[in-house]
Structures are given as C-alpha cells and as structure tokens.
Amino acid sequence: MVNPDLLISVGIWVSGVGMSAVGIEMTVRPPNEQSKWWYRGIFISLGLMFVGLGVWQFDRADKESKRQAEAHQQEQLRNEGNLKFVQGQLDSISKVLGTLSSNSNSSQTLAALRAVLPTITSGRPAIELMSNKQLRIKVIEFCKQLRELVERHRQQQTQVSTQEQGAMSEVMPFDRALTEEERKKANKIWSDYTQRISDVEIRFQREYEDQFSVSARMYRDELLRRLGPQPPEMTHPFGWASSEVAEYLERLARKLPD
Question: Euclidean distance between the first and final Cα of the chain, in Å?
C-alpha cells in the first residue's frame, strides 16, 4: 500500500521543481505573446498544487501529532489508574493481614495471604478482574460521588452570587446616578465577586482532577472495552467535570450484562 505522506512529499517536490523549471525556461527563452499564457497557467497551477499539498501535509502532521499526544495521555492515565488500584489493594491487604496477625494463628494468616495474592500477581489490572456486577456497582457509586461534587460546586456558586447581589443592592441607588464613592464601592464588590467565583472554579476543577479525573477515564475505558463500540449519542468528551460525565458513565454501566 502506497504511503499517502510519501506521495504528498513527492508531489510537493515535483511542483517545486516544476515551478523552478518553468521560471528558468521563461527567463532563458522569453515566450511570445501566444505562448506566455501557457507558461503562466502552468506556473500558477504548479504553485496552487505546491500550496495545497503543503497545507494538506501540515494538516495530516498536526492530526497525527494530536493523536499521538492523546494516546500518550490516555496511556499515562491508564497506568496511573492501575497504580492507584494496586496501591488500594495493597493497603487493604496490609490492614487485613494486620488484623489477622493479631487475632489469628499463622496458618490462618497464610491462608488469607494465599487468597489475596492471585489478584496482585495475575498480571491484569484490578479493574479487569471485577465482574460486570461489581464494576457496575463501583461506577454507580463513583457517579453518585461525582454528582455530589458538582452539586457542592453549584451551591458555592449560588452562595457567592447571592452575597454579591445583596452587597451590590446596598450601594446601587435606583432613583439617581451613582456618586463617585458609590462607584468605587460597586467596583470593589464586583472585583471581589469575580475573584471569589474564580477561586470556586479553580478549587472545583482541582478537586475533580485530584480525586475523579483518572478514575473517570479508567472506568470509561474499561466499560467501552467490555461493551464494545457505542453509538454516537453514547460518547462524551472528558475535558471538564460535569454531571454529564456521571450520566454518561452510569448509562454505560447499566448496559453491562450480569
């Protein structure tokens, strides 16, 4: 199969050489009135071909670069998610073994250790070892927590906006123009409001990135791995925390067979 990028590069080279050849020919042997338009037409056609192929090549390179960056990011998120799950398992195992060691004999501790070791040593991410029912329960619980985060964010926005409106109503007369002092107070209230709203948004997004972002992508990838390709209405961009992310993941989870 012919490589399109190679053909584009060859086309750019041919059109560039062709324009040079036509330009040299017109300089060495100036065309007459009848033939000069042919030369001009060829030169312009080659120029358009050169520009068009150059734009096409840049567009393909840009898309490939973005695809590779996205693939790299997804791989990093997947690895980070797997690491968190393994760390969680190790923490749970440590707690279980600590309890067993203080309340059980050595044979019971050894039996418990043998029971949990296959999960760690199987070579598969912990999320892949879950049954469909277990995964569905985990995802639905995760979506509940995400909705609670979104609701807290909405309440904080409302609280800041309500306080701003109340403070502004105290300095904004309805029957006359603002005095200079009132204008300064109003500007100060607005400045404080925009800063507080910005702080709310930053905290919200930071909390989402720290506690939800990796798990959301990991659950999405595992659900799609099990369910296979989904129709367009079942896709969702994961660029920002929102209740739509929770709704999307929950819809996928509920499609898992038992």
Answer: 44
Is 97 within the bounds of a domain? yes
Residue pLDDT, tens place only, 166-208? 888 887 776 677 788 888 888 888 888 888 888 888 888 888 8
Domain count, the chain: 2
Residues 161 and 93 in one domain: no
**Residue count (the chain):** 258
User: Does 20 fall in a domain?
Assistant: yes
Residue with tokens 């749970």: 92
Domain that holds residue 137: 130-254
Whole-number Å distance between alpha carbons of 119 and 125: 9
Q: What global pTM score does this model have? A: 0.50
User: Which distant-in-sequence residues (6+ apart) come within 8 Å of 73 by Cβ?
Assistant: none
Kindly state whether residue 118 falls inside one of the protein's structural domains: no
Is the torsion defined by CA of 97, 99, 105, 107 positive or negative?
Answer: negative
